[in-house]
Design goal:
The protein has about 775 residues and is an alpha+beta fold. The chain contains 16 helices and 29 strands. Mean pLDDT is about 85; it is low at about 1-20, about 410-415 and about 540-545.
């Protein structure tokens, strides 16, 4: 097997070298027209005494940039394009041009426009004396051009004082009453972006206090500067409203507040008013129906935060959007505020909430390839969904799924060495917070959906067979932007049953190991938990293609759970007798433990097509009371496509544990403490291809010194010596809606005893290399 791997490696290396040589040898100016220059390189040099202007911040203002470079020097896309011939009628020439990128031809007009854009960007940031000089370095013999933009920022203008001119006294009281929230302060740079942000914030606060028609365009800043002075005296003025578009503003006019008069729900926005057949008044809302009265007025009223008889508040519209989005039967929502005249001097608004209905029922069939940490397989799924039980938009789901995976990582393992899973789950999601004895107003403020579910799962591996039956009661919160999610598991029950055949297997491999046996005996888990997720990543709509990458993104996931505490308290209070040293419920031992984990990933975009990503994660689980060891499904494992990629899944740790037996080590290589550190450099190559180089470090440990896991216990003075390290490279195929990932990890440092400590010094392909195929980024 080692000889075969070596041969494959040699062939792969030879092909890669030949391909690289072909690309390198192809002239990048092959398709540059005569008399023109290839834009070889562009530099931005900044002279700034304040240190606030960075060249990287100015790149986006350039109107022309050179062809993309891989690893900072190889123009792979240009090289691919240059492989094509001049005859575009041939399919392979067209194909190469689609994969590659045409040469960027130097354009003097675009260079001049870039210089103007750079100077304007600095002026907008307060550098009024900024200057940009352009140096061009043509290379006629090589038909290439280098361009340098030499930016002299000069001294910036700073705000020395801010005065406020607001003739409308009612408006002035509100604006100045929030002066502690002003973001613009004396001493700040005279940055026009900051001025605009302040205008937007003030307008937003006013729109939440009844000023429906107020916009930031009513706010103007006037700047007064003295000759030879860097100080700017600002005056913020709020202009009076215009009575009409053609009439001039009346200086004595005041901005009116608006009160909500009526709220109308139009349940079928796709139809014309001629199709509206009935209007139902319910409490504070009016519901306009067509022939299909598919949703009850009570459900809509509970999700409406716009109240008649109150001043208009933009935040109430946002809350209504967010609440209505919880209704699965609703596909789209649009809220329009329509001026409705005046009464007793008070301007009035009618709120029209237009809804578009979703499909009531649906059946989904799924057939997909699966990859769980490198184990290849396939899955078949069938899901039935009813989105509108009882016309209350309660969501009913019934899911059935079968999975088959090769534990050896190849397709032959689907027959000889496989993991089989049959799963069924059914549940109801209520579009509101459900709990007895709580007031309606409290439930409305909580803004959570309630899920009730039961499940059944049958798992079969060569080592064991396991059956898991479960029930759950949980609450979920999701922000409208989908950037923040919270889940509270009020009650989650799992009964894990292992048939006699599995017990026989445990008797064979561990007849005298009580801790190992404990992990694989029947047990009962009743837990509660909380999960929090937050990110600043933009999540585009389904019909919108990706936009420019964000400069910095993060994702944070934190979770905590406890199990068995309530049962233990009841057992203690009732003075229940222990059996085999533990309390039991229905004759089954229950688990008692606490577990917490956190995972943080950071991504920094270095340039348009280059990204650095970092990840740090860890967790700890502590068994106590009625348990001597964590339940197997709650323990951590290391290695795999999303862990330390120099190792396969469940082949690393705990600690310095020396894994030798593939059967028992699957059970032994798990722990109570987890640590993972990763760094990855990602680069766009061409077409859908991305490249990556990465380094990972981490391991797992046990809380106690278990006999079957020697060297696995965590010690503060030695754990750092047991942190495994790996490195590698990867190729990804990004199809925008999903990403395929191929990673090759190599061991760098192996903490296991009786094994090579530093494989990075003398790497061996068969011993130290691990190939991973997965879907999505590792973090």
């Amino acid at each position: 097997m080692k000889h075969k791997l070596t041969d494959i490696h040699a062939i792969f290396t030879a092909v890669a070298v030949a391909l690289a040589a072909t690309l390198w040898s192809c002239s990048p100016v092959k398709h540059v027209p005569a008399g023109k220059y290839l834009l070889e390189d562009v530099d931005i040099n900044v002279s700034d005494t304040t240190g606030t202007v960075k060249p990287d911040e100015l790149v986006n203002y350039l109107r022309q940039s050179p062809n993309h470079k891989v690893l900072g020097f190889l123009k792979l896309q240009l090289a691919t394009y240059s492989l094509s011939g001049a005859d575009t009628s041939r399919w392979y020439n067209r194909w190469l041009r689609r994969l590659g990128q045409p040469p960027v031809i130097y354009d003097s007009e675009l260079t001049a426009a870039s210089a103007r854009q750079l100077r304007m960007a600095l002026i907008n940031r307060g550098f009024m004396d900024a200057a940009v000089a352009v140096d061009t370095l043509p290379q006629p013999d090589r038909r290439r051009m280098k361009v340098s933009y030499n930016v002299s920022a000069g001294s910036p203008r700073t705000i020395s004082s801010i005065a406020y001119d607001i003739p409308d006294t009612a408006l002035a009281r509100l604006v100045m009453g929030d002066s502690a929230l002003f973001t613009l302060q004396p001493g700040d740079l005279f940055d026009r972006n900051s001025l605009d942000a302040e205008r937007a914030l003030i307008a937003s606060r006013l729109r939440n206090r009844g000023y429906y028609a107020f916009t930031k365009e009513y706010i103007t800043f006037f700047a007064d500067t003295a000759e030879n002075s860097m100080d700017v005296e600002l005056t913020m003025t709020v202009r009076p409203p215009r009575q009409s578009h053609s009439a001039p503003a009346d200086s004595a006019a005041t901005h009116p507040t608006y009160m909500v008069r009526s709220v109308y729900f139009v349940t079928d926005a796709g139809k014309s008013p001629a199709d509206w057949t009935d209007t139902v008044a319910y409490k504070n809302i009016n519901v306009i129906y067509t022939d299909d009265k598919y949703i009850k007025p009570k459900v809509l009223e509970e999700k409406c935060f716009i109240e008649p008889g109150t001043l208009y508040r933009a935040a109430e519209s946002d809350r209504t959007y967010e609440a209505l989005a919880q209704l699965g039967i609703i596909r789209s929502i649009n809220i329009e505020m329509v001026p409705a005249g005046a009464a007793d001097g008070q301007q009035l608004l009618d709120a029209y909430i237009y809804l578009t209905r979703n499909k009531k029922q649906g059946v989904t069939f799924e057939l997909e390839g699966t990859n769980s940490e490198g184990d290849l397989g396939f899955g078949i799924g069938l899901t039935y969904t009813h989105r509108n039980l009882g016309k209350r938009s309660e969501l009913f789901n019934a899911k059935f799924r079968m999975n088959y995976e090769s534990l050896s990582g190849n397709l032959s393992g689907l027959i000889n060495d496989r993991y089989t899973e049959y799963a069924a789950e059914t549940g109801i999601t209520f579009p509101k917070f459900q709990f007895p004895f709580l007031s309606r107003r409290f439930k409305q403020r909580v803004k959570a959906v309630t899920e009730l579910a039961v499940s059944f799962n049958y798992q079969e591996r060569p080592e064991y067979t396991r059956i898991i039956a479960g029930a759950a009661w949980k609450y979920k919160w999701t922000a409208r932007s989908n950037r923040e999610r919270r889940t509270f598991d009020l009650l989650n029950i799992n009964y894990v049953y292992l048939p006699e055949s599995t017990i026989d297997f445990i008797n064979q491999i561990a007849p005298t190991n009580p801790l190992l046996r404990y992990s694989y005996e029947d047990h009962f888990i009743m837990r509660a938990g909380y999960t929090y997720y937050r990110t600043n990543r933009r999540i585009p709509a389904a019909n919108i293609r990706r936009t420019t990458p964000q400069a910095f993104t993060y994702s944070l996931r934190a979770a905590a759970e406890t199990g068995g505490n309530l049962l233990y308290a009841l057992s203690s209070i009732s003075r229940q007798k222990r059996a085999d040293g533990v309390y039991k419920v229905f004759g089954i031992a229950y688990s008692q433990y606490a577990k917490a984990e956190v995972d943080l990933s950071l991504t920094h975009t270095l340039a348009d097509r280059h990204t650095l990503a970092f990840r740090v994660g860890g967790g700890i689980g502590v068994p106590y009371g009625n348990s001597r060891v964590l339940p197997f499904e709650k323990r951590f494992y290391a290695g795999g496509a999303n862990g330390v990629r120099g190792w396969g899944v469940r082949t690393l740790g705990p600690g310095s544990y020396d894994a030798r037996n593939s059967v028992t080590d699957f059970i032994n290589q798990c722990g109570d403490i987890s640590l993972i550190l990763s760094a990855e450099y990602r680069m766009k190559l061409f077409w859908v291809f991305e490249g990556a180089i990465f380094a990972d470090a981490g391991n797992i440990w046990t809380i106690h010194n278990y006999e079957n896991q020697p060297g696995g216990m965590f010690h503060f003075n030695t754990f750092w010596k047991q942190i495994a390290a790996s490195y590698g490279a990867g190729l990804r195929l990004d199809f925008e809606y999903f990403l395929l990932r191929f990673d090759l990890g190599m061991k760098a440092y192996n903490p296991a005893v009786n094994q090579e400590k530093w494989p990075i010094i003398h790497p061996r392909w068969g011993r130290d290399a691990t190939f991973h195929f997965s879907v999505g980024y590792p973090f």
